[in-house]
Each structure stands twice: as structure tokens, then as C-alpha cells.
Amino acid sequence: MSGALIQGSLCAWIKQPCHRRGQRAVVLSGRVNLDSLRAFVAVAEEGQFRYAADRLRLSQQAVSKRIAALESSLGATLFDRVPTGATLTAAGRTFLPHAHAVLIAARHAVESVQNEVRPLRVDILGSRLLPAVLTLDFHQAHPETPLKTLVLRGLGAALPALLAGEIDATFAYHPEPLPAGLESMVAYLEPHEIIVGAGHPLANRTSVPVDELRRYTFWIPGIIEGSEWGAFYQELTADFGLTIDSTGPNFGFEDLVGTIAESRSLITFWGERTREAGPWPRGLRRLQVVDPTPVYPWSLIWLSSNKHPDLTKLIEHVRRQPQPAGTSELWLPRRLRS
């Protein structure tokens, strides 16, 4: 992206004369600067100020101030504040691709004069989930490779970050075809287990057929509408007639397993390679699900044109991960069934 194109994009939006044949230039300073653009893009992609703050490692108040200053400087409202978070206005939707272009160009400008290879940037979705386990395994196998992990919030944030060059790879289930320019490969088919408390009727079992789970309620807070894991659970419950309760605040793994441990009726799904959260509550049981075993199909996704020297190393490492020997006793989403 050339400087002229970047300048033209902002000039068209801000409606100020640009530096052409003696005209004064628009300068990214003051309230319209890279920090304010990063805040704007983060809120647009995350949909909530607090999630954007987590992503930027700022306070929510700091993000709000940057957005307010940007809106004031532009003379336009970029977000509608709604009970579920923040949605882009028509002006915000117009501004978003230009903001992306400026941030990409700024990053490319910095990287063009840096001699050192930047770290490989990998989105792991969550610190206890399988992507973190695989990435840690990669780091231990290749300690010489500079690596940076990030925690985005699903494909809604990860795909734009891949296309913009903000990350080099992500792990996710993608229920729909990927945008042009992205590639993927199956990283791991992760069997789903269940966890129950000591007082639950299933507590003394080591495995349970999936059909038997119809009589119980799964509690899975944090299923975001439109998310890839939401699509996975929607298809799973439809195929087997399961009941999932996704209501209630999501306070993380510790609260989830603590609630399940004390309940005589609730159960929840648990990935086979999900790392246990802190001290495992006393009496909590993990049971295999069989006949068939539901598996979550994690993929590694990357940008085809990405030339980072260590990306191929990560792809080959993931490619060597052992997979289940056959799929006859596994349940997969329809898109992946052969």
C-alpha cells in the first residue's frame, strides 16, 4: 500500500485537503493517530469495549477515551452503544477499511527497516485450550524460534487479523469456506469428554454413550452467537437431541468446573487435551463419550502469501500430530464427513 493511497483514503474520510501540488497534508497526530486507529479496529472486531481492552492490554476506560477522541476529531459517530456492546455505524463501516489500510502500511514500514526477524505470531484462542497445548509443544521442539502468542476471540477476530498480517496463524474450527487467500489443514481432531460432580448420577462411570446424555443438561456459558464453537454445538445437539444451557455469566474455567463439581444435575463438555484449571475440584470426574465420540475439528489457518521464515516450520510440526486411526466411531460436523 503506497503512501499516496493511504493518504488519499484518510483525506477522503476526514474531508481535508491533501498534500498534492502545494496543498497541505493530513498528518496522523493528536487525536487521529495510530493508537486511536488500533483502538477503533479492536472495538469494531471484538464488538465490546472490554474485549478490545483485553486485546490491547489497556483499561476499558483508556479504550473509551481513545474512541471518543477519535470521534470528536473526525466529527462523526463511529459506534452505536448497545446493551450487547458496540456496533459500527454507517460512518464506522466506511472508515474501517481505511483504518485497516493505515495500520497495515505502518507495520510494513517499520518491518522494512528492521533487520531482525520478528517473532512468529500465533493466535491460541485461550491459554488452556488445545491450540495453546500444540503451540507450547512447538515451542519446546523449536526453542530457537522467536514466538509470540495472542488470544483473540474466535474467527470473527482472527480472520481479519490474518488477512491484515497482524498474526501469522490461528487455530480454529471453520464451519464455512475460508476467504480467498487463506489456507488451512486439520491440526487435531479433539475428542470431547464430559465432566460431572461426585454427586451426579454418572459419577461412578468411566464412559457414557452419547445417546444417554439426552436426559441431562449441559451447562456451557460463553457460547457466542455466530461463533464457530456455537455452530459446532448447534449441529451436535441437533444430531443427538442434547440440551445445552448457555445462559449465565462466563467467569472462566475455574468457575465452570467449580459449579459442575457442586451440581447433582449439570454436566459440561471438556476437550480431551484441555488443560485442567488450577486445583481440580475434589470429586470432579472426567468421562469418555462413546458410540460415537464427538470430536472438535481444530484447523491451523494461515495466509497463503505469508513469507515468515518460521511459518513453514509450524505447519510441518502440526502436520506430524498423531490423529485418530479411523473415523467410524467418531462424530464429525457434516462438512468434514467423507
From TrEMBL:
InterPro entries given in the database record: LysR_HTH_N (IPR000847), LysR_subst-bd (IPR005119), WH-like_DNA-bd_sf (IPR036388), WH_DNA-bd_sf (IPR036390)
Top-level division of the source organism's lineage: Bacteria
Positions of the HTH lysR-type domain: 32-89
Pfam families noted in UniProt: HTH_1 (PF00126), LysR_substrate (PF03466)
Record GO cellular component, one term: protein-DNA complex
GO terms for MF: DNA binding; DNA-binding transcription factor activity
Sorted UniProt keywords: DNA-binding, Transcription, Transcription regulation
Family of this protein: Belongs to the LysR transcriptional regulatory family.
Protein name: LysR family transcriptional regulator
Organism: Kribbella soli
Organism taxonomic ancestry: Bacteria, Bacillati, Actinomycetota, Actinomycetes, Propionibacteriales
